[in-house]
Amino acid sequence: MTERIKKIIDTESILPGKSQSGMLHNIEVFTDRYKFILGVILAAALVVLPFVMGDQYLLTVTVKIGAYAILAMGLNILTGYTGLVSLGHAGFVAIGAYTASLLSVNAGADFFTSTLAGMVVAGLVGVLLGLPTLKVTGTYLSIITLGFGEIIKMIAMNWSSVTNGTLGVKNIPKPEIFGIEMTVGNYGMYYLMLALVVLTAVFCLMVVRSKTGRAFQAIRADEMASTMMGINITGYKILAFVISACICALGGSLYATVIGYIDPNTFNFDVSTLILSIVILGGMGTIRGMFVGAAILIAFPEVSRFLMEYRFVLYGVILVIMMRFRPQGILGWKSTLPYKLNSKVRAEIEKIEAEEKEGD
């Protein structure tokens, strides 16, 4: 028993119940072993990227990729972790973008205050949209969310006294910090995007690893079993909608600030489809996959403008291929690493080992 305990302490892990073979496992082992070094290299690369890239157009595309990564992380909380498919998340994006933009243009509110207001409004609407999940799921829920997205678009189009109707909102001001305007040209918008992406990713990671995240994943796996285990299905489903809506509103506010102009057609069904495509392509139920999916699907139209008219056809082909050959997404593999023991368990094992030595 002593030798076994020593082995556990040395490896700081216990073996999972699945095979540990294959290229993906080797990649995961490598990234886990050198994650600190790789993290430092990635952080340094992201910090110096604007100076290396230089081109303002490419930098604008990079900021858009970051905005869509935020949107994908928001939908991923609902679809990837909770298992509730939404086809109308462009509605939440529109709520965040319009609320923040109108407050900035008409009331002179700063970016952070107006963005927070947009997140609050989207969260409240998320509660209302979450209520139908108590009665319907699957295809019916998807149809409801699809209708929600179209309703928000029609409101933006016809409520002219507030949203300016089809004219949209123009000259959306850029964020300012200490009186310095943040634009793509001075790299301020890039670093703002980077900060928001990191904060959103950390928040999503904290949610996923918390009791709430485990409840989301239990609901996705089996609602009946979750109910029998005492999980409040109603509360957690609504909470998933609220969190998802708030994150998407944040991404919408950032996106509106980047492009400087929005109208109802900015948030049509194509946007909902694109966000869902990013989640599926990158890997549902993962955070890392959202960055890869956003980078591929946002950068692809920019490097292949001659295929612009057929981009959604290509998105469909990509998704069909993914569903056939890799339904879990590009980075959607399940961890094959050993389960690491926490500090308390390790301390207890060391205590047992010390007692055994004293007994000998």
List the keywords.
360 residues, mainly alpha, ABC transporter involved in vitamin B12 uptake, BtuC, two-stranded antiparallel sheet, two-stranded antiparallel ribbon, 16 helices
The CATH level-2 architecture is identified as: Orthogonal Bundle
* Strand tally: 4
CA-atom Rg in angstroms: 23 Å
Count of runs of 4 or more consecutive helical residues = 16
Largest sheet: 2 strands, antiparallel
Folded structure, characterized:
This protein has one domain (21-32, 57-336): Orthogonal Bundle (ABC transporter involved in vitamin B12 uptake, BtuC), CATH 1.10.3470. 71% of the residues lie in helices and 2% in strands. It is built from 16 helices and four strands. It is globular and about 85 Å long. The two termini are 13 Å apart.
Layout of helices and strands:
Elements: H1 2-11, E1 13-14, H2 23-33, H3 35-53, H4 56-81, H5 90-106, H6 111-130, H7 138-158, H8 160-163, E2 176-177, E3 180-181, H9 188-208, H10 211-221, H11 223-228, H12 233-259, H13 269-282, H14 288-303, H15 311-325, E4 339-340, H16 343-359
Antiparallel strand pairs: 1-4, 2-3
Helix pairs in contact: 1-16, 4-9, 4-10, 4-12, 4-13, 4-14, 5-6, 5-7, 5-12, 6-12, 10-12, 13-14, 13-15
